[in-house]
UDP-glucuronate 4-epimerase (Ceratodon purpureus), 462 residues
Amino acid sequence: MCDSPSKSLHNPLLKMSPSALDEFPSTPGKVKMERSSYFGRVASRWHSSVSAKLLCVTSLLLALTISAFFLMSCPSRSVDSFVNSQGMKMFQRTHQWEKRVRQSCQPQRDENALIVLVTGAGGFVGTHVSLALKKRGDGVVGLDNFNDYYETSLKRARQELLEKHGVFVTEGDINDKFLLESLFEVVQFTHIMHLAAQAGVRYAMQNPMSYIHSNVAGLVNIFEVSKAANPQPAIVWASSSSVYGLNTKVPFSESDRTDQPASLYAATKKAGEEIAHTYNHIYGLSITGLRFFTVYGPWGRPDMAYFSFTRDILKGKPINIYSGPGGKDLARDFTFIDDIVKGCVASLDTAEKSTGSGGKKTGPAMLRVFNLGNTSPVTVPTLVDILEKYLGVKAKREIIKMPRNGDVPFTHANISSAQAQLHYRPVTNLDTGLKKFVKWYLSYYGDNSNRKVWLGNHEQII
Ligand SMILES: O=C(O)[C@H]1O[C@H](OP(=O)(O)OP(=O)(O)OC[C@H]2O[C@@H](n3ccc(=O)[nH]c3=O)[C@H](O)[C@@H]2O)[C@H](O)[C@@H](O)[C@@H]1O
C-alpha cells in the first residue's frame, strides 16, 4: 500500500506518554546526563544537541529516500489519486489530471453547448446521462468514488465505456472540497448533474451513516462549492419518488405531502430538497430536483429487484416477492432509463442561470421539482412474469410479507408538470424495457452469473 510522503514517516515515540518516554533511554545523551559532573553535564548537553541534529538530518534523509521510493514504486498512482496508509484513495491534482479534465470538457458543438460536471458518473443513471450529453457535443467530466455498495467491476466497466466515448471520470468523493474546487478552477461548468448518492431503500437500516455522508453532507458540499463558483453553475440533482413515503393520494403530484418518509433513504432525499431551497433562497443557485420513479434498464443497479431477480432466476435460486398489507401485490411505476435520460437532459437545457455572484445572490433564481415516472404502475409479480418470458426460465417464487424496512406499497407518478415544462414523455413500457435489459444482461454476464463473458457488443444495446 502507498502512503502520502508526509504521512509515511512517523515517530512512534511521539505517541507515548512522558512517563513512558522517561523509561526509554532513547539517546546516548540521556544516559550521560545521569553522571553528575559539570563537564559531564556540558559534554552531555553538547553531545545531546549534536545527536539531536544528527538524528534530525538522518530522519530527513530517510524521509526523502522513502518518499522517493513511494513516488516511484506505488502501483496504484494514477493521474488523480494515490492510496493513503488507511487504504483510502486520495485525490491528487496533477498537470495530467488537469489536461484530461479540460479535454473531456471540450464541447464539440456550437457556443450553446453545456459544460457539465456529472457526479456519480460511474453509476447507472450517471453513465447514461454522461453518454447522452457527450454524444450531442456537450463538454462532460464525471466524478465518482467507485464505492463497493455493489460490484465495483460493473462501475469500472461503465467507466471504461465512458472513457471510450471521451468522458473522463475522475475518482473522488463529493465530500472532497479540494477536489471539487480544483475541478471548478480548471473548468467553468455551466451545469452540475448531481447524481452521486447512497441509493437503495432497504440498505439504510444496515448503514445509515452512508446516507448522511452522501445524500446530506455530500449534497451540501456540492452546493457550497457551486455557490462560491464564479459564475455559479445551474444544478440538476436526483431526488426520489420515495419522498412521497406513506402518501396515499394517487397519482403522486409534486404538491402532495412529502413529510412522511418511510425510510432513512427517503428522509435524506427529502432533506436534500429542503437544503436545495435554502441554497436557492440565500445564494441564488438555480436548482432542479428530479424525483425518479424506480429507474431500470441496461447497465442498471444489481441491488434493485429486477436485476437481482434476473440473476437469481438464472441461477435457479428462489426469489422473495414481497406482498403488502392484506396480501396485496406491491407495485412500482417502473421507468426506463432512456426516458429518464431525456428528462435529465431536458432539465439541464431548461434550467435558467444561477443569479449569485461571489457567493451573493443578485436576484431570485429558479427552483423546480419534477416527477420523472412512467405513469403506469406494474405489480412485482407481473415484473417477474415478464422476466420469465425473456429469460426463458421459470422463477422459484417465494411470497413473503413485506418486511418493515422502509418499503412503500406502491408508487405512481403524475408527470403533468414535467410534460408541460420539460416536454417529458416516457415512451417505454415495462415489457419493452425489460426485454432490452435482459438482452444487455445476457450479453454482459452470459446466462450464468458466476462467469462474466462478452457474448456480443453490449454497448450497442444502450
Ligand atoms: O424510485 C425510487 O424512488 C427508488 O426506486 C428504487 O427503490 P424501489 O422502488 O424500492 O426498487 P427495488 O428495490 O427494485 O424494489 C422494487 C419492488 O420490488 C420489491 N422487492 C424488492 C426486493 C425483493 O427481494 N423483493 C421484492 O418484492 C420491493 O418491495 C418493490 O416493491 C431504488 O432502489 C431507489 O434508489 C430509488 O430511489
Notes: The first strand starts at residue 81 and ends at 83.
